[in-house]
User: Fold these one by one.
Assistant:
Number 1:
Amino acid sequence: MNNVTRPSCAGAGLFAEQAAVAGGASHQRNPAANAKPRLGFLGVGWIGRHRLEAIARSGVAEIAAIADLSPTLVSQAAALAPNAISCRALGDLLALELDGIVIATPSALHADQCIEALARGIAVFCQKPLGRTAQEARAVIQAARQADLSLAVDFSYRQITGIRMVRELCREGALGNIYAIEMVFHNAYGPDKAWFYDCKQSGGGCVMDLGVHLVDLALWNTGFPTVGTVNARLFSQGKPVIGRADVVEDYAVAQFDLQSGAAVQLTCSWKLPLGSEALISGAFYGTKGGALFTI
């Protein structure tokens, strides 16, 4: 199955609808009085600005405020939402009556910012990864549960029609017993911001940036079975990354086993000489057939 449509910000739109009900509890707002949830955008670089533009174009939410440390980025985003209040930091957004906050800041900030917003009674849509470690991610999830608020992460590839069709085949048993999954995400250009290459800020290289989507799709399509043994080989500029904290990987191959018995292989990279901008695919093989998506 092929689907060449690029992932949209539909996930943020779904979150916006949820936030109308779940968000803003601490401010005692009445969702019925204002059908559109009020969203604040924290971080409006490339992805944050494009997500804001998608929300503005869809009309599913009111873009109430924009915050970024860069006045230039705030100005560019404000042109897409002229009625929004311009801010510099999360604290400014938290002082407003918001139903939800859309976070697109460097990865090192995600967990603390999510937790702070949730503690103030504001629902959160966060750019992946939710945290740099499992401990950070669990802390955010626990904060959302304690606050009884919506928390969503940008797994936008779930919204692509071809991928959803593959999921239906996997979940309804049309492929039989799935025993092998092969996932690929190669990006020929790589990130353009320095913090991506700093492990303390990013939490990792291409696996954290791209591989997180592959792991999500492999598990989401198969009902999130328990993961067993995990093995990986990481490379930076053609050399193995072994026990080094001063570099992040730009090429990786990983394998893990599922409780169901399936073997999963993931391959991802930055700046691989592909001959094209990107290659994204996923193959699911079972005892009754196989299904493939490519982007």
Number 2:
Amino acid sequence: MATFAVFEPPLKKQSAANVDALSRAERFKFVRDGFSWLAFIFGPVWMLCHRLWLALLSYCVAIFAITAAAMWFGLAEGAVTLASLVLALLVGFEATTLRRRKLLFWRWQDAGIVVERNREAAERRFFDRWVASAPVKAADTPVPEMPAASNLVVMPAVVPATPSATSETPAEPVQRVPVYDPESYVIGMFPPKGTPPGGKP
């Protein structure tokens, strides 16, 4: 299991309300605690990748001091190699501390520690907890305030009047539909074929 220190990026006041939660989550940094083999083997290159300018300057000064001591005092080649190895081990062990101090110097917030088997599992576990505890952003459209109960005026419901039988308004005449006469030969407007006008066949 590995231990990861989580750092949250700083937010400017003028842009704090316009930052999306997803874009903000992508900027989180997970710094693994422990010995760094990359910093041990590729010390100067590793410092350049993480923009550790002060650490890189200190490393160059230390290398220059070891080289100058070897030239001025006639140190053996084995002593110079041993000194360089000790310096590389120091960078490997202090790699995590160097990154933490840099982030804290630039006002990054320490968001906690996650213990997991790898970085992907640590990110998943941290963001599951972070999303659950994140406040819900209010809607941009303001919600109108409801008036107080003492200021409410209840209007009586208007019920439409039902016309009664005794109303003075005369009722409309009911149209009666004529009943179909089966004895009649007239269908629609035309009599059957062969029937004289005005008579039956």
